[in-house]
Amino acid sequence: MTDFTRSFEIVIDASVHDVFEYCRDPRHLFAGWPELEVTDVAMTPEGVGTTAHIVGRFAKGMMVEQIEREFTEFVPDERIVSEAHARVRFAGRTKDVAHGPVFTWLFEATDGGTALTFVVLEEHLGWWQNLLESVSAAVMAKKMHGMLAAIKTGVEGRASSTA
Questions:
Q1: 3-state SS, residue 144
Q2: Contact of 6 with 66, CB cutoff 8 Å
Q3: N or C: which terminus of the chain carries fewer CB neighbours within 10 A?
Q4: What is the pLDDT along the chain (163 residues), one digit of tens a residue?
Q5: What is the spatial distance between Cα 111 and Cα 49, in angstroms, rounded to a whole number?
Q6: What does the buried/exposed string (b/e) look like for 65-96 if buried means 16 or more CB atoms within 10 Å of the residue's CB?
Q7: 3-state SS class at 76
Q8: What is the DSSP letter of 101?
Q9: Beta bridge partners of 84
Q10: What is the DSSP code (8-state) at residue 113?
């Protein structure tokens, strides 16, 4: 079994605090991935324990993921880590995912803005899952960049509307 990690970065023209506060809401984190629908968000004041239900529809609806994502680490203005508990339905079969991907958002000040790094960790992959991750990396990169671009647009749009 192996682990597979990908990371993506974007620079946002806003303070670390503003970017972090925007990202507290799971709806904002996944807005740039059109196949995902985020519902049933329950935010906690301390961040840890914030949850969201996410439904992902892929392959023209032939594959449906039901995901419960929870913030398991929350360090203000530095890091948000979330873990997934997922179930996948494909071709009439439903399967629990033993180790859902761990998502980490890292926030760092840079030249008057914020470098937001998004890290995806897939743990304990079998050889065939590792191969699948390698093959799908380009498609997933596009989705991850879309998520980051939506966060950038949301944060910078919010800042310009209050100016």
A1: helix
A2: no
A3: C
A4: 566 778 999 999 999 999 999 999 999 999 998 889 999 999 999 999 999 999 988 777 778 888 999 999 999 999 999 999 988 888 788 888 777 789 999 999 999 899 999 998 877 544 444 445 554 556 677 888 999 999 999 999 986 766 5
A5: 32
A6: bbbebbbeebeeeebbbbbbebebeeeeeeee
A7: coil
A8: P
A9: 69
A10: E
**Cα 57–Cα 96–Cα 37 angle in degrees, nearest 5:** 25
Distance between CA atoms of residues 126 and 107, nearest Å: 31
Q: In terms of C-beta distances under 8 Å and separation of at least 24 residues, what long-range contacts does 143-147 make, across chains too?
A: 143/32, 143/33, 143/35, 144/6, 144/8, 144/118, 144/120, 145/8, 145/10, 146/32, 146/33, 146/34, 147/29, 147/30, 147/31, 147/32, 147/33, 147/118
Torsion of CA 89, 58, 97, 6, to 10 degrees: 170
- Give the 3-state secondary structure of residue 146: helix
The separation between CA 81 and the C-alpha centre of its own chain, rounded to angstroms, equals 9
CB 135 within 8 A of CB 129: no
Tokens of 127: 């050889």
